[in-house]
Amino acid sequence: ISFTEALQYFQSAELSESRGKVRVPGRRGGLAALLRCLRGPPQLRPQLRGEQELALAMAQCALDDSERVHMRILQTIYQQLTRSRLGCPRYGAHWEELGFQGRTGTNPLPGDSPRPIPKIQLNLPWRNSVLSPLPQPLHGLQTQLHCPPSDLLQHLNNFPFCIMSVNITRIVIQALREERLSRECNRRQQVIGVLNDLYAAAFLQLFRLWKCQHGTIADAGFFLKELELSTKKKPRQLLKSLEAYVSR
């Protein structure tokens, strides 16, 4: 499945339950509005609020084994990462190849992570979880915006691709929720496009950190904390680094 087709599915889906969980930042008035104007990021333009709400609703959408589009997204990511033309069983140890940590989900990555590493069972990928880890890597893999999967999975030392993807997605979504990305979204007049590029930019920085510093699982928490600071404080700088990478 292409990212465009997957996005069209979410745009037309009901998502009422997921939308009910969305906490969109409200408009501020009085002193709060003045302080924000002087010191904080700008508010998202009203015409982009609907796209912001869709992105946040997608992040709350539960993965459903009975939903064909959800399974197609999962299968496509597996095929892109493993270079396989064949699909794979929904459950099984083969998911370890994509970077899950531990078969029972009881072994989170060590280190001072900005958020707890999700306890995801290796043989039950994203079970009882949200769908948010799926659409952004789908976009990145199909547009080749982040580093080649062959490098990530074969040449780096024990690189846990999927666990890192889950955490980067959460960092990017949190930055959107906190309106850290409003300036860039307003400038580009889009929200989901900014999220996709920022995910790719954060992954590129992670790739460079992991490679240059010979990263291991023990470094994952430190790297994620650094990525969270960059994503929230300097998103434009991250995006410029991605643009330079793509232009080369």
Automatic annotation (TrEMBL):
Name listed for the protein in its UniProt record: ELMD3 protein
InterPro entries per the UniProt record, alphabetical: ELMO_dom (IPR006816), ELMO_domain-containing (IPR050868)
Residues of the ELMO domain: 69-235
Superkingdom, taxonomy of origin: Eukaryota
Species assigned in the record: Malurus elegans
Pfam family of the protein (one): ELMO_CED12
